[in-house]
Specification:
Blueprint lengths: L3 E6 L3 H12 L5 E7 L14 E2 L3 H4 L6 E4 L4 H13 L3 E4 L2 H18 L3 E2 L10 H7 L6 E7 L2 H12 L4 H10 L8 H4 L2 H15 L9 E2 L7 H9 L2 E10 L9 E8 L11 E8 L3 E8 L3 H14 L23 E8 L10 E9 L4 E8 H6 L9 E4 L1
Parallel strand pairs: 1-2, 1-4, 2-3, 4-5, 5-6, 8-10
Antiparallel strand pairs: 7-9, 7-11, 9-10, 11-12, 13-15, 13-16, 14-15
The chain binds L-homoserine (HSE).
C-alpha cells in the first residue's frame, strides 16, 4: 500500500482527532509529516517537532502529497487550499464556509491541476452524503433534498425540548462538546446550514447556488411561546434545510425552523445527529443518517477522503455546474409567524390566514406566504419575529 505523506493545517477538535486516528492505525500507512498551527504556545498532544507556524513548511515540501485543511478561518483556508492545489497537492478539507463561498473556483483549480479536492467532512460530519450524491445518485432523477445538516442547532433544540434546558445552557454545552463553530453565530443563525445546503445542491442537482441567495432563518428568534404552540399541536421544531427542483428547473433552497411530527423520519433525528432525505423519481424517498458534528464523526469523513486519495478519487460533478439561481422563489408555503404585540408587521403578505392569536404578551398568525414575499419582508433578519415553516 502506497504511503501517504500528509501536511495537516489545524490542530483543533477535528485536526487533533485525525492526528490521533492516523497515528494509532498504522495499517492506514499514512505519515503526518508536519502540522501547521496558529498558536505555538498552546499545549498540544503530539510531538513538538511536528508543529510549525509556517504554511510553507507544508506547501513547499515536495514530499507532502496530501494537504488536510482543518482550520476555522475560511479566508486563510482558501489561500492555503488554492496554493496547495496549484502546487499539485491533493486537498481534503472540512471548511464548508470556504467551499460554499468559492466552490466553482476550487473545482476549476482541481481540474486545472489534475489533483483531487475532497470535502465529505464539510457536510453532515460522518454522513457520506456527497459521495452518495456523486456516485449513486449520478443521474437527473432527484427532485428534492431535505434534512437536518447542522448538529449544534439540532443538539440545542433537542436539549431544550427533552431536558427543558435553556437556550444558553444548551449552546454552551454544544460548544463544550466540540459541535459548534468557533463562531457559533454561524450555527445558530443558519449560515452553516446554508453553506452546507449550497454544497449539497451542486452535487445533487448540478446547480451553483450562493449561500447568500438562500432564504434563511436560524433558531435565534425562537421564543418560548413558539415551543408552547408546537407542544399543543404535538409537533417539534427542527432547523431544516431543503431544496426542491421542479419540472421547469426552478430551485427552492431554504433553511428555516420547521414544525414536524415527532414520528416523522426527521423528527427522530436528535442531538448532534444529522439526517438527509433524498427524494427521487423512481426510488421515492431515501434517508441518510449519522453523527453530524464532533471530533471522531468528522474525523471519520476526513479519513474516508484520505483513503479515497489512494485511488485518486475525484468528484466528477457529472450533473454539470450550471448557474441559474439568484434568489428567485416561485412557490408559497404555510408558515407560523410569532411576534410581540405592537410590532407593526405587514400581514398583507399572507395569501390567506388560517389561525390568528393575540394575547397581551404574544401574537401569532399562520397561513401561506409566497417565499419571494417572505424573503423581502425583513422578518428573516428580525430577531423579534419567529418564522417557522410547516
Ligand atoms: N458546527 C457544525 C455543526 C460542525 O454543528 O453541524 C459540523 O459541520
Amino acid at each position: 500500500m502506497k504511503k501517504l505523506n500528509i501536511g495537516l493545517f489545524g490542530f483543533g477538535v477535528v485536526g487533533e482527532g485525525i492526528y490521533q486516528v492516523l497515528s494509532e492505525k498504522s495499517q492506514l500507512n499514512t505519515n503526518i509529516k508536519k502540522i501547521v498551527i496558529k498558536h505555538p504556545d498552546k499545549q498540544r498532544n503530539a510531538p513538538t517537532e511536528l508543529f510549525s507556524t509556517e504554511a510553507e513548511d507544508i506547501l513547499n515540501d515536495p514530499e507532502i502529497d496530501i494537504v488536510v485543511e482543518l482550520i476555522d478561518d475560511a479566508d486563510a483556508a482558501f489561500e492555503i487550499v488554492k496554493t496547495a492545489l496549484n502546487k499539485g497537492k491533493s486537498v481534503v478539507s472540512a471548511n464548508k464556509k470556504m467551499i460554499a463561498e468559492h466552490h466553482l473556483e476550487l473545482i476549476e483549480l482541481q481540474r486545472k491541476n489534475q489533483v483531487s479536492f475532497l470535502y465529505e467532512a464539510a457536510v453532515c460530519g460522518s454522513v457520506p452524503i456527497l459521495r452518495n450524491l456523486e456516485e449513486y445518485y449520478d443521474n437527473d432523477l432527484l427532485n428534492y433534498i431535505q434534512g437536518i445538516v447542522n448538529g449544534s442547532t439540532n443538539y440545542i433544540l433537542t436539549k431544550m425540548k427533552s431536558e427543558n434546558e435553556s437556550y444558553e445552557k444548551a449552546l454552551k454545552s454544544a460548544k463544550e462538546n466540540g459541535f459548534a463553530e468557533s463562531n457559533p453565530a454561524l450555527d445558530v443563525e443558519g449560515t452553516d446550514a446554508a453553506n452546507k445546503l449550497s454544497i449539497i445542491i451542486l452535487h445533487a442537482f448540478g446547480r451553483l447556488v450562493s449561500p447568500n441567495d438562500i432564504l434563511k432563518k436560524g433558531i435565534t428568534a425562537l421564543k418560548n411561546e413558539d415551543f408552547i404552540y408546537a407542544a399543543e399541536k404535538g409537533l417539534i421544531i427542527k432547523l431544516i434545510a431543503g431544496c426542491a427542483l421542479d419540472e421547469s428547473g426552478n430551485l427552492t433552497p431554504i433553511v428555516v425552523p420547521t414544525f414536524i411530527e415527532k414520528s416523522k423520519t426527521l423528527g427522530l433525528v436528535n442531538n448532534e445527529y444529522n439526517g438527509v432525505l433524498i427524494g427521487s423519481a423512481l426510488a421515492d424517498e431515501q434517508f441518510l443518517y449519522g453523527k453530524g458534528a464532533g471530533r471522531y464523526p468528522t474525523s471519520s469523513a476526513v479519513l474516508s477522503d484520505i483513503s479515497a486519495l489512494r485511488y485518486d478519487y475525484k468528484y466528477e460533478l457529472r450533473k454539470g455546474i450550471k448557474n441559474g439561481f439568484h434568489g428567485e422563489y416561485f412557490v408559497e408555503k404555510k408558515f407560523y409567524v410569532g411576534f410581540k404585540p405592537g410590532q407593526k408587521l405587514n400581514k398583507e403578505i399572507f395569501q390567506n390566514i388560517e389561525e390568528s392569536y393575540q394575547s397581551k404578551e404574544y401574537e401569532y398568525v399562520t397561513g401561506t406566504i409566497r417565499l419571494s414575499d417572505l424573503k423581502n419582508s425583513g422578518w428573516l433578519e428580525n430577531e423579534s419575529v419567529s418564522v417557522i415553516s410547516f
